Amino acid sequence: MTATGPTSQWQLRAAFAARLSEMYGREVPAYTTLVDVSREVNEDVLRARGADAERLGSIGRVTAERHGAIRVGTPREMRQVARVFAALGMHPVGFYDLREAAASAVPVVSTAFRPVDGEELARNPFRVFTSMLTPADPRFFDADLRARLETFLAGRELFPPELLMLADRAAQERELPQEDAERFLHLAVRSFELSAEPVDAAWYRTLERISAVAADIGGVRSTHLNHLTPRVLDIDELYRRMTERGIEMIDAIQGPPAWHGPDVLLRQTSFRALAEPRALRAPDGTVRTGALRVRFGEVEARGIALTPAGRARYDELLDLVDQQAAQGTGEPRADIARAVWERHLPHSEAQLAAEGLGYFTYHPVPDRPRDGSRPPADLGELLRQGWVHARPVVYEDFLPRSAAGIFQSNLTGEGTRHAAHEGTAYDAAWLSGAIEREVLDPFTLYARQRDASLAQNVSFLSETS
Q1: EC number(s) of the enzyme (predicted)?
Q2: I want to staple 113 with a disulfide (CB 3.0 to 4.6 A). Which of 85, 208, 392, 441 is the partner?
Q3: Do 365 and 405 belong together in one domain?
């Protein structure tokens, strides 16, 4: 934040992310260890790889980068969350249905609030994965439990009116006076702290039998930061170092395998959810200290954004890995996945670009061919002949299966899902209507970056021909 004058949206966003990190470090000390180890790994990778380590973002951006995760219960609460994040220049991007992505019961649909403009992402790429409970889905909630749950959710207030008023002003004016900015940040951070209010133990356990995620959302009268995620340049090395420090990690790294080719999409892992002391209220009104296992520490490594064709290839490869792993040969899944990637994905960024599988921006080569030849019309030939070079576009979003895998690895039980019932339909259009603002398509955003650079290059090349 500036010392004097108004505070812009990106400054609010950066300050909010930093203060959340400080708060979460106080609440979950193991998170501070995760941040420290991430920084150590990043510094080591930078020393070892030099400029190549910053190919998907400067070390300053990577070190400061965070994504948070929160959970809410109703469309009304999701609309309020959208207002808070709009104050920070963050928009809903992507629709994720975690009900279909996990073997265990995860009755939520999600979106991610983040900046969408390239300059804003470079300033501070803070994003928040936001999940909403689906009480209307009969696979998880019968009519009686749904009614009780919806009544409980309707009776709580997650965000004070003053915060929402300041948020609307910041979104409209794209800044706040310093005093108002400080008040907004105080109220916003406090809204995501873990509440000390006693939890109704019987109600919480009722929901926990359905899903630990449902209990975390609908079993308490507040929301809280579920995890906060730093970005690391070598997630395999981080996993090893965290384990060496005696911190229990989940069983696997979610997402693409480690291999010698281009890093694509997103790899994630976490330390296991911790048993945290919480005040629990018994049916007779007495309050005792118990423990709930809800929050965990996630870390991520980001790669290149894939086009629709690239994502289709990725999904096909996941299915192939599943098929081979199901054969029961005893070969580790990570080894199976690595071999599948080696056979079916391009081994270089240039090939990934030429085959139209990844998003890149394209830039003129200063010492382009000077032999009088005309530039070719084909993008692949432009790259091969040295007329332009491709810069990878960072994947800024999430993967439903990976998110569900993280959730599932940190659940206290499998929960209950009645597959015989037909699930309630939710999609991006439904969520857009529910929160009264468009849920943006990530592919469109990435294509816009690519196409803008191509338009500039077409102009450049036409001048040289």
Answers
A1: 1.13.11.93
A2: 85
A3: no
Q: Is the pLDDT of residue 41 over 60?
A: yes
Does the pLDDT of residue 464 top 60, yes or no? Answer: no
DSSP state of 439: -
Residues in contact with 366: Cβ distance below 8 Å, sequence separation at least 6, in sequence order: none
pTM: 0.92
DSSP assignment of 274-328: PEEEEEEE-TTS-EEEEEEE---EEEEEE-BPBPHHHHHHHHHHHHHHHHHHTT-
Same domain, 26 and 157: yes
Does residue 400 share a domain with residue 363?
no
- 185 is a domain residue: yes
Are 41 and 120 part of one and the same domain? yes
Distances, alpha carbon 465 to alpha carbons 27, 362, 438, in Å: 62, 18, 42
The average pLDDT across 235-242 equals 95
Are 450 and 364 spatial neighbours (Cβ–Cβ below 8 Å)? no
Structural domain range at position 119: 7-304+396-426
Residue 89 lies in a domain: yes
Q: Identify the helix (H) or strand (E) that includes residue 420.
A: none
Strand-pairing partners, residue 440, are 93
- Say whether pLDDT at 324 is over 70: yes
3-state secondary structure 18-83: HHHHHHHHHHCHHHHHHHHHHHHHHHHHHHHHHHHHHCCCCHHHHHHCEEEEEEECCHHHHHHHHH
Q: Of all residues in the chain, what percent are helix, strand and coil, respectively (each to 5)?
A: 45, 20, 35
Instruction: Let me know if residue 439 belongs to a domain.
Output: no
Does residue 158 sit in the same domain as residue 64?
yes
Cα–Cα distance, 428 to 442 (Å, whole number): 12
Contact 362, 388 (CB under 8 A): yes
| 406 assigned to some structural domain | yes
- Report how many domains make up the chain: 2
**Dihedral angle sign, alpha carbons of residues 92, 96, 99, 104:** negative
Same domain, 240 and 126: yes
Looking at the structure, tell me whether residues 274 and 336 fall in a common domain: no
Supply the pLDDT for residue 94.
Answer: 97
Work out the widest C-alpha separation in the chain, in whole angstroms: 89
SS3 of residue 93 by DSSP: strand
State the Cα–Cα distance between residues 248 and 272, nearest whole angstrom: 6
Asked if residue 153 and residue 75 are part of one domain, the reply reads: yes
